[in-house]
Design a protein that fits this description.
Glycosyltransferase; 11 strands; mainly alpha; three-stranded antiparallel sheet
Length: 390
């Protein structure tokens, strides 16, 4: 029997179902204000400002085509009337059409890949145009950032069966699999040398894990017959490792050593990882026939209202969910100048992979809150909890 992801959550932990429904309400109420009036793009971020009376206001900053495409990927799961409420009167397919029209001016591979993915998922008739632009930006043999390479594979997997993408899909899949270092289950920050300085080439982030495991799971699921067991095994190994490393409070850590599969630096902990990116990747893996990591998803979701980093320090407690503003605050971080802890651990682990520099944890405690919210956070949240099946 097929049931929704929300229903499965309610069956296991009813209190978390209430939390997920609350977050989804916040997402739908907040996204319309992030859409730039008269444009086919969303703001890059909404920055919170606290007034002397204690109230909060939000300021739109920047523009992001990338975030617009991710939003479309999530909003498409809503009923049509609610899609139009979020996207300025347009359906997800219509909004994706505007993004496709903007593609001649798009020069970033990741942006083009996300638009192509949205075109495939919304059934847009100009999918081939989107794939062609993505292909033109994906120079053969050139290293790419792992996240963007993963989005290329997800776009091709979504297009499989509609457009002939067999050759490109195979090449994109091989690129991700070859990018891994030795026997490590984790993925590096780039698929080859030249994009990352040598002294931090071993450091990869959480996004470098979730997007490839999601893409490889989707590549397996779209295949004929037995699918792609090698791709599924790689996705499984990556998922198992990040779940093994998950914090006691449900934290999804930020920086990893792609050589050893260990944590370089845990902070910041991002809200989007907890409520959206880890869930959507791990759910897609389960949907593809992989292991069910729902327990880790639930543990991570719970962090949103039970933040140990803040609870342990009097005067630092605050909610990361602001229902009335339609935002979730972006992250909990150390507040160290120029990201000193991240830099020190990144450089130190280059030489000594297990070096922790523990005194830094006492000096720079993770009790600062980044009071911003970005639209892609809600796009992936909708994708995670409204899409798929379990």
């Amino acid at each position: 029997m097929t049931i929704t992801r929300l229903a499965a959550l309610g069956r296991e932990e009813p209190a978390l179902l209430t939390l997920a429904q609350r977050l989804l309400t916040v997402a739908e109420s907040g996204l319309p204000s992030m859409l730039l009036p008269g444009k086919e793009a969303f703001a890059f971020t909404m920055a919170g400002h606290k007034s002397p009376d204690g109230s909060w206001t939000l300021e739109r900053r920047g523009t992001s085509t990338r975030y617009a495409a991710i939003t479309a990927l999530g909003v498409r799961f809503l009923p049509e009337n609610r899609q139009r409420a979020v996207l300025g009167g347009r359906t997800a397919q219509e909004f994706t059409g505007l993004l496709i029209e903007s593609l001649p001016a798009v020069t970033n591979l990741g942006d083009a890949a996300l638009i192509a993915w949205a075109a495939a998922d919304t059934g847009h008739p100009k999918l081939s145009d989107a794939l062609d632009r993505m292909g033109a930006l994906d120079e053969e043999g050139r290293p790419q950032y792992t996240v963007e390479a993963a989005w290329v594979l997800s776009a091709l997997a979504a297009s499989h069966g509609t457009v002939d993408v067999e050759g490109r899909l195979s090449a994109a899949r091989d690129r991700l699999l070859r990018a891994r270092i030795g026997n490590s289950p984790l993925f590096p920050h780039a698929t080859g040398p030249g994009l990352v300085p040598w002294y931090r080439a071993h450091v990869s982030c959480f996004a470098d894990q979730t997007y490839p495991l999601q893409a490889l799971a989707r590549a397996h699921a779209c295949g004929d017959g037995d699918g792609d067991p090698e791709a599924l095994a790689a996705a499984e190994a990556c998922a198992a490792r990040i779940c093994e490393l998950q914090g006691e409070g449900g934290q999804w850590w930020w920086h990893y050593d792609a050589r050893t599969g260990g944590v370089v630096e845990g902070y910041p902990v991002y809200s989007v990882h907890q409520h959206a990116m880890a869930p959507t990747a791990l759910f897609d893996l389960a949907d593809a026939g992989g292991t069910d990591f729902a327990a880790s998803v639930r543990k991570g979701l719970g962090w949103m209202t039970d933040v140990p980093e803040l609870a342990e320090h009097p005067g630092k407690q605050e909610s990361l969910i602001l229902d009335e503003l339609g935002v979730t605050w972006r992250k909990v971080f150390r507040g160290d100048p120029k990201k000193a802890v991240r830099a020190a651990r990144g450089l130190g682990t280059r030489v000594a992979p297990n070096l922790r520099l523990k005194p830094l944890d006492r000096v720079y405690r993770p009790v600062s809150v980044d009071r911003e919210c970005r639209p892609y956070e809600f796009g992936w949240m909708l994708h995670a909890w409204q899409g798929g099946h379990v």
